Fold this sequence. Notes:
The chain is α/β, with parallel strands linked by helices. The protein has 23 helices and 22 strands. The longest helix is centred in the N-terminal third of the chain and has 30 residues, at 201-230.
Amino acid sequence: xxxxxxxxxxxxxxxxxxxxxxxxxxxxxxxxxxxxxxxxxxxxxxxxxxxxxxxxxxxxxxxxxxxxxxxxxxxxxxxxxxxxxxxxxxxxxxxxxxxxxxxxxxxxxxxxxxxxxxxxxxxxxxxxxxxxxxxxxxxxxxxxxxxxxxxxxxxxxxxxxxxxxxxxxxxxxxxxxxxxxxxxxxxxxxxxxxxxxxxxxxxxxxxxxxxxxxxxxxxxxxxxxxxxxxxxxxxxxxxxxxxxxxxxxxxxxxxxxxxxxxxxxxxxxxxxxxxxxxxxxxxxxxxxxxxxxxxxxxxxxxxxxxxxxxxxxxxxxxxxxxxxxxxxxxxxxxxxxxxxxxxxxxxxxxxxxxxxxxxxxxxxxxxxxxxxxxxxxxxxxxxxxxxxxxxxxxxxxxxxxxxxxxxxxxxxxxxxxxxxxxxxxxxxxxxxxxxxxxxxxxxxxxxxxxxxxxxxxxxxxxxxxxxxxxxxxxxxxxxxxxxxxxxxxxxxxxxxxxxxxxxxxxxxxxxxxxxxxxxxxxxxxxxxxxxxxxxxxxxxxxxxxxxxxxxxxxxxxxxxxxxxxxxxxxxxxxxxxxxxxxxxxxxxxxxxxxxxxxxxxxxxxxxxxxxxxxxxxxxxxxxxxxxxxxxxxxxxxxxxxxxxxxxxxxxxxxxxxxxxxxxxxxxxxxxxxxxxxxxxxxxxx
Length: 685
Ligand code: ADP
Ligand code: MG
């Protein structure tokens, strides 16, 4: 398909190309599949007396007096007051002196923006201005809002997408006609147009359904292929000696829970057995999955084999690596030479690691997807572990499992999914469940509050810090972004430093920071030097700092419940009482109800099913659970039915044409090959 660079579009030069690259869009094809994260629909215009405070309103009103202008060399401010006895609304524009001549006395406009109350007065800053007729025309449309980076606006993305759609020939639909009509799916060209520029809500839902199906379909096709290659193969690396792991278990500072012990026995007997292990370990956040992975690596090493553990973020790779080194040292096993390989490992260091891996000196390696790059050659790779599997795709799993003789495979995930879905999504794996938390844990105390509760929370944070504890504050965004009204890490960190007493050390962390910087911040937080960490969801997966007892989440309404549960899982990992404070940034009652579910339960499985019950399957456009698997638009919970249909469609297709050789599947075969090509795939963190 269309792999031409973005610079082939009018108006996009190298500078803009770089901005697009930051959000993972490198060519026209990727641009078309860069789906909006939300849509702006224009509210019905209201008179002043009906407007809602702290929300976006379109207020219709007449200009009674010419606006006043305050200007100096640097700044110009235009002020206009709308009245409707007894109410007044102050409209303010900065740096827009040209508006003055437009806002003529007597004319009527629609002013759109957030209405706020300040010192008893209602104000709206930088409102958009429309004539009533222009506004009415807009009301029937939905404008796309994209995930952005600084310098890139939704308008720029929309313009680029529109250009591609106008100028490129329509794509041939690769989903076979038969499947489309059976599943009642629209054509790909219609779907791609409507997902960006929906005519109305119904067309949007139609488009979304098709694209979600397509994601499941390709995923499941890849899964079948993986299953075929690996099913019932002989275990080429059988285990004989087991006494070292027994010793390590004895030496642990805690006793394994019953569930951990049971799952460990399953792993051990798999690894001793004749058939290769393919096992998924499902266990809620904090259930203690990591130690089982380490034990399996030690077991492998003791028997002369190599093992690799792949994790989705560098932060987590460092953390696991250090924990593994400590465990080995404590047990006098450093001879196994654990190593760490990530995207930011220096070239010279990488060369050394490749050598040690291929000559077999290094028996254990932990890393990010750098582990599956072609250059990496293993010696006797007997065991492959992926942690936080829900963050990887089936493709990474395939790539790592295809290095040398098929290794034993262990996959770990905290995503609570019902068994019927697990069988579809992890069709090639046996499933073990850790359904018990370590005994020393106190349940996290939760509260859901609005922004007015912030000052109180800050005092609480200070108190916890003074007791030697640590605190996470999560914001949904890295920096301020046009069109999205949510807290960002950059500004929040600055504000928080002013709010908290000066002795407290506050730092920030987000995915766009340089890897070395991220590592340094995480280490300083783990050592307790940083007390308050303001972060995006980069810490969502796997981060383990047991001394952290407070999790404060800003704009909780912007996250899916499963994701909020994972975030909360960062606290309550030690013996101290922990707290999670969800700040709801809007006043939506539905959102409040959903957050209530979290408040009342610390059980991931229950939360996921309650959430689904509450939303029903009608809410197709609300917050995604997010972070689940590799899907950009599909949601395994919400689209569970679609997932089942896709699974049936794949079975039927492969039954009729196992190698996709028929002419009508030519296009599908090509798209699928492209899909499997890891070069085209990046992990969005
Ligand atoms: P997750 O399942 O979320 O990956 P981790 O493996 O990171 O959880 O474990 C969370 C914390 O619990 C770690 O600090 C770990 O050392 C500790 N832990 C694991 N198992 C036990 C246990 N049986 N008893 C007490 N603490 C444990
Ligand atoms: Mg973990």
